[in-house]
Write a structure and sequence with these properties.
Length: 542
């Protein structure tokens, strides 16, 4: 998978950025540890606030447990690396190895990659599990303690219990055995999906632009209502025929599907448009606003498909019949430079336009299904060729899923190239802002792209990370959010040492004294006065 991704330039750029960020934040972790209880020093960079917020977020998810001890243990490893060139060079070697595996094409598959990994693993095992074992164990212990605090957090527990109950309700019966519940499918189609569409409500469509040698057109302020996404009625009828014959009677099977869709409606208000007819009569240029509605049964179609026979030019399925009907289509001009001309010709135009739309839609449906059938057949041919190649070279044989995925990608790519060749003199563009537009000088009333361009320019203003775009909109503070826990340092035993404001006989003045250590130890009471440094005996600085 990595070798496949390395062939794409976007992957190399993305992985380089991620690795650079990891190195930068590795150095930032030392400064996080130095902030003590989380106080951000004014001398730090503008990343300090983001780092402190991230630290606070983690601590709140961890049952209000301070991560200062974790960062302190990590900082100890950094200090060890600063003092020990061997450890520092090992970290650099690990960084270089990761970069080579992810960036150098094919390296991860070479034997040299495995050999270098074994060498780094053995060296790291000596450094982290022998030479600096106490410091490594402290980091691991702090991580385990923090993970345990995540598990003990009341909100995390409630969320985990809710998810577990959800999956139990979805997939198990009263006895706890896995089962399929058909009524849940009905809930999905009758409750969940309709409710989702209802909550979505409105979806704005970016500015649509079209240009060819005959006409230039721009349509903007298209807002789709979710209530019109689904048809009012969808009917599917299936007919299956199978005949088994022996001797001279041939076996035969046939499947057909009849799909009826009615009630696809449309209600587009205040649609801004620009039309420029370059040739022919009448050669006009118009800018305005229109309302387009299609109520009642609206757009309806009936589609009959069946399996293809040997005599058919199709391969998998064929279109037996397509019927399209357009009802209650109404266009009302709110604003136009040629409103009188449009009013005179509108009845004639709609009378001529309706059958044209119907025939065009029928042809498009039939053509698209025929193209899809042809695409499936070409994918099958590519996969069959891959099977033949695999027989000649079994060692490099792809799996069955990879064969079909690769074949599909190849056919889709070829189809895109054909479309680009056919539409060389045509331009179709969807522009979110004026910077993306092929007609940047055409300003339409109420255009969404104009407002998006304004916000984009606003986002470029301000100093450092601050921008006036963040002040757009206002909302009241949520009242049903649980209060955030107070972040405190919690005493916990790590390898015999109790972190926090506690002490014991085996830990003196920040140093471990060699000898048997029993733990975990949890004592209460105020911290005793620091003892003088131990001058005799062997001590290990921590």
């Amino acid at each position: 998978m990595v070798v496949e991704c390395q062939q794409h330039p976007d992957y190399n750029q993305a992985i380089s950025t991620l690795l650079d960020l990891a190195e930068q934040y590795g150095s930032h972790s030392k400064s996080i540890a130095a902030t003590g209880t989380g106080t951000v020093r004014e001398t730090r960079t503008h990343l300090a606030a983001a780092e402190a917020d991230l630290k606070t977020l983690i601590e709140r998810f961890a049952n209000g447990t301070s991560t200062d001890d974790l960062w302190s243990s990590i900082n100890t490893i950094y200090e060890d690396a600063d003092r020990d060139p061997e450890l520092k060079n090992w970290f650099k070697s690990i960084d270089g190895y990761i970069r080579k595996c992810l960036q150098q094409q094919g390296y991860i598959m070479d034997d040299a990659s495995n050999e270098e990994w074994h060498r780094l693993y053995d060296h790291g095992n000596y450094l982290l599990r022998e030479k600096y074992r106490a410091h490594t164990d402290r980091v691991v212990g702090e991580i385990k303690f923090l993970a345990d605090q995540f598990d003990q957090d009341p909100q995390n527990k409630a969320f985990a219990a809710s998810v577990e109950k959800l999956f139990d309700d979805l997939g198990t019966d009263a006895n706890g055995k896995a089962t399929f519940k058909p009524h849940l499918v009905k809930d999905l189609t009758d409750v969940i999906i309709p409710a989702a569409f209802e909550r979505i409500a409105y979806i704005p469509i970016p500015r649509i632009e079209y240009s060819d040698p005959e006409v230039d057109a721009v349509v903007e302020n298209l807002v789709l209502e979710s209530d019109n996404f689904m048809p009012n009625v969808l009917e599917i009828a299936s007919d299956n025929f199978f005949r088994w014959g022996r001797k001279k009677v041939a076996s035969k099977k046939r499947n057909s599907v009849d799909v009826k869709v009615t009630g696809i409606q449309m209600d587009l208000r205040d649609v801004s448009f620009y039309v420029k007819r370059k040739h022919g009569f009448p050669s006009i240029t118009d800018t305005g606003v229109a309302n387009i509605t299609m109520g009642g049964d609206g757009f309806c179609f009936r589609l009959k498909l069946s399996t293809a026979d040997d005599k058919d030019k199709q391969h998998f399925f064929k279109i037996d019949k397509v019927d399209v009907d357009v009802k209650n289509l109404k266009i009302k001009l709110v604003k136009s430079n040629h409103k009188i001309l449009f009013s005179l010709f509108k009845p004639l135009m709609l009378k001529v336009l309706r059958p044209v739309i119907q025939k065009t839609a029928e042809k498009q449906l039939k053509d698209q299904f025929n193209k899809f059938d042809q695409l499936l057949y070409q994918i099958k041919q590519e996969a069959d060729r891959a099977v033949d190649d695999a027989r000649r070279d079994p060692e490099n044989a792809p799996n069955i899923y990879n064969r079909y995925v690769t074949a599909a990608q190849k056919q889709v790519l070829q189809g895109k190239k054909k479309v680009e060749a056919v539409a060389a003199d045509k331009k179709v563009n969807m522009a979110v802002t004026k910077e993306d537009s092929i007609f940047p000088n055409i300003h339409l009333p109420g255009g969404i792209s104009s407002k998006a361009t304004e916000y984009k320019e606003l986002a470029r203003k301000g100093e450092m990370w601050e921008s006036p775009v963040f002040s757009i909109g206002a909302a009241s503070k949520s009242s049903d959010v649980p209060p955030a826990p107070e972040v405190i340092r919690k005493p916990h035993a790590i390898n015999g040492k109790t972190n926090g404001n506690y002490t014991n006989g085996n830990y003196t003045n920040g140093n471990y004294t060699n000898g048997p250590v029993t733990g975990p130890i949890t004592t209460t009471g105020p911290v005793a006065a620091p003892a003088p440094p131990v001058s005799t005996g062997n001590t290990v600085a921590f």
